[in-house]
């Protein structure tokens, strides 16, 4: 019974020590810096540090300061410098989804400059390149809302803008006629002479998760839904609208 009580006490003390352990950088007064898991022992009189398989014990008086990983300030913290208001997000990924009017997973890359209205909300402007049947330059406004003022956490976003074509149409559509063709003399096959790409609107809402590694660098992963309508013009008042409904999957880099 006594052995059981001793084991129980040791287990409780071990859990207590583990719960109080934190990871960070310990700065000693002699100029040394040790990165690892640290724990105060002996009623706070000493500091035990575990790093790279080694264990050091220092008197509390030898410690200059400790920077916990939770103490890292970023542009999204309440304690962040007030002059840090801008950050940049670069993303790349695919527009996934099969359809009859596009590739199965066109490549997409974009970047945006964003202004922090507060630590939760930011607004910005961005542009990119998307390789659909033709190459397009999406120009958009970017709205983001973060749920946590921490190093990592989820966010929601909305991109709204316009797809600007950078090349002519690469597709020929057959047997498509203007609406008035059923009332006027039959004009012939209007779709064989080619089309002019006019671009179209885009909407891209979604949700993501971001992790900040330092005050000015982080990464993000995001998924969303993208709708864009591409417009084409042809001869004799011919026009064609094609709707795209895609799932966006992107990895991003955050910096300022």
What layout of secondary structure does this protein have?
Elements: H1 2-20, E1 22-28, E2 33-41, E3 46-51, E4 54-59, E5 63-68, E6 86-96, E7 107-116, E8 121-131, E9 135-146, E10 152-165, E11 196-212, E12 217-233, E13 239-255
Antiparallel strand pairs: 1-2, 1-5, 2-3, 3-4, 6-7, 6-13, 7-8, 8-9, 9-10, 10-11, 11-12, 12-13
Can you give a write-up of this model?
This protein has 256 residues and is mainly beta. The protein has 2 domains: 22-71, SH3 type barrels; 86-255, Beta Barrel (Porin), CATH 2.40.160. Helix content is 7%, strand content 56%. The protein has 1 helix and 13 strands. It has one helix spanning 2-20; strands at residues 22-28, 33-41, 46-51, 54-59, 63-68, 86-96, 107-116, 121-131, 135-146, 152-165, 196-212, 217-233, 239-255. It has an 8-stranded antiparallel barrel with strand order 6-7-8-9-10-11-12-13. β2 and β3 (46-51) form a beta hairpin. The longest helix has 19 residues, at 2-20. Mean pLDDT is 78; it is low at 4-20 and 174-191.
